[in-house]
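Appendix B. Extra example for self-study. Work through it before the problem class; the solution is given directly after the inputs so you can check yourself.
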Amino acid sequence: MTLVTDPAEPTAPRVAIVGATGAVGSTLIELIEERGLRYRELHLVASSRSAGRVLTVDGAKYEVQAIETFDFSQADVAFFSAGTSVSEKWVPVATAAGTLVIDNTIAFRMDPDSPLVVPQVNAHELDRRPKSGVIANPNCSTIPLVRLLRGVEDRWGIRHAVVSTYQAASGLGYTGVEELQESTLASLNGPDSAFEPEHFKPSLAFNVIPKIDRFLDSGFTLEEQKMLQESRKILGMPHLDVTTTCVRVPVVNCHSEAVYIECHEPVDRAELVEVLGGLPEVTVHDRTDLKEFPTPATVGSSDHVHVGRVRITQSNPRAFWLWLVADNLRIGAALNAFQIAEELLERGTL
Ligand code: A2P
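Solution. Structure tokens for the complete assembly:
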């Protein structure tokens, strides 16, 4: 079922959302409604399990289409958020049909012909259509981090950064959130209640797990490697020294990060707060009151990167710590993808 929303605007793109029934896909639909994306047609695509399900967007009803039967030549742009294996299989089909893909998986992020874009950092990559037909959306923890690193690098130069992440269950989509809820209920029912985790192992209920994605031979996890490689590519800093420990925590939504940065020059806290607060869509909570800080529960669903605990280290005037919280479904996934589309439209690339 397709709706021609604005026949008076024949240049508006035909849009497909692949993974429309998932956590990121649903957030994309919210953003379309909130931010008023211009589209001529909208196609909602998921697995055959969801085919025929009806979803409402902008007050109009759409039947979800199975990816196997979807004709990608009907879409000028497609957002892919259905997992890496789906992107590996179906993105080439989409690009062969002439669709420009904004992909939210790891599948194309390090492909030299596919730009990896955070619009607040490297929107210039969107000046022309990529050779591959794919624009990659970075990892959910990388996006808020590079938005802050850009400002610090431009003013003080970064020697190195050390980051610990505190990543929410929604990073694994609805399945992650459901498993956190089920495992928490099972734990509350007592130690004997049988619950076999499928995704978070050991169980995430009342626990923290210092492993996200698979282990590599280096001892780092793939998630940790993604943060290093992707930060370098987005910032255009191939030698950037950033090292991370990625931890899953029993939070439904919003990733947090404790970030330590050593710069080339001494850093003044007041100026640092000014620089960070002046970055696009960044809110600094301890700008005037050192005791103010963001948390996932207090930030909620937000389109800003929230920063607090900004403090220069006592032993090294060139180094400082900060704490950030960012909605991983919005900033870390759907909003970044959406803002890529907005930039493409503004540039006439789409
Ligand atoms: P479906 O709901 O039909 O399974 P989440 O990240 O919240 O788990 O959502 C994953 C999204 O990816 C859902 O929209 C899901 O659709 C979709 N998806 C999962 N597997 C496939 C597949 N093999 N082909 C197409 N879409 C898929």
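Self-check: Residues 19-23, 25, 46-47, 49-50, 67, 82-83, 86, 173-175 surround adenosine-2'-5'-diphosphate (CB under 6 Å). If your reasoning did not lead you there, revisit section 3.
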